[in-house]
Amino acid sequence: MKVYLFYNRVPRLGHQVGTGDLADANWAVRIRTVQRRLATATRLATSVTFRAQILNAILLPGILFTTAVFDTPAWAAQELRNLQRQFLWRHSLSTETSRHKVNPGLFYTPRAAGGIGLISIPVAVKAQRIKHALLWLTQRSDRYAVA
Q1: I need a labelling partner for 22 at 20 to 30 A (CA). Which of 8, 69, 72, 87 fits?
Q2: Is the pLDDT confidence value at 56 over 80?
Q3: Pick from 54, 62, 75, 65: nearest CA to 118
Q4: Residue 107: which residues within 8 A CB-CB, separation 6 or more?
Q5: Structural domain contains residue 16
Q6: Residue closest to 86 by CA, chosen among 77, 76, 78, 96
Q7: Is there a domain that residue 57 lies in?
Q8: Strand, helix or coil at 12?
Q9: Cα-to-chain-centroid distance, residue 59
Q10: Structure confidence by residue, pLDDT tens digits, 14-39
Q11: How buried is 67 (Cβ within 10 angstroms: 0-12 exposed, 13-18 middle, 19+ buried)?
C-alpha cells in the first residue's frame, strides 16, 4: 500500500484528493476547465439567450459536481459570477469585474417570465444541498447518482 506524505495529491474523479486543504486548488482547476469548455462554445453562441443556454449546460454540471465535495470559497463564487457576466455580454472568458447597466434580476428570471433564463449558481448549489439532505432524511437513493 502506498503511503502519501502530507499535502501529496492524487487525482480522483477530477478532484485533487490528499491530506491537506485542497479546496482552493480544486476550484482553480474547475474554473480553468470551464473556461476551456466555454472557449470552444463561443463560436456557436450568436445571441444572449443562446449564450445563457450554453452557460447553463457547460457551467453548472462541473460546478455542482465540485460543490458536492468542496465548499465554494468567496473568490471562486466571484470569479464564476464574473465569468457568467463576461461571457453573456462580451463573449469573453475573462473573470475580471465589469459593470453592466442591466437589472441583475433579468439575468436569473426564467424565459417564460420574460428573462434570459440563466440559472443562478448559488441558488443551484443550495437546491442541490437541500436535495441531498432530503434524500438522506428519507433514506432514498439518488437515481441520478446510481446511473
Answers
A1: 87
A2: yes
A3: 54
A4: 84, 85, 88, 115, 116, 118, 120
A5: yes
A6: 96
A7: yes
A8: strand
A9: 5
A10: 666 655 567 777 788 888 888 888 88
A11: buried
Residue 19 covered by a domain = yes
How do residues 80-134 score in pLDDT, each as one tens digit? 888 888 888 777 777 777 776 667 677 777 778 877 788 888 888 888 888 888 8
Spatial CA neighbour of 30 closest among 135, 125, 97, 105 = 125
Q: Is residue 129 part of a domain?
A: no
Q: How far apart are CA 121 and CA 117, in angstroms?
A: 12
Mark residue 7 as left, alpha or beta (left: phi above 0; alpha: psi -120 to 50; beta: remaining): left
Annotate 52-94 with DSSP letters as a single string: HHHHHHHHHHHHHHHHTTSPPPHHHHHHHHHHHHHHHHHS---
Nearest to 76 by CA among 115, 144, 33, 26: 26
- Cell reading at 10: 492524487
| 66: containing domain | 9-119
- The tally of domains found in the chain comes to 1
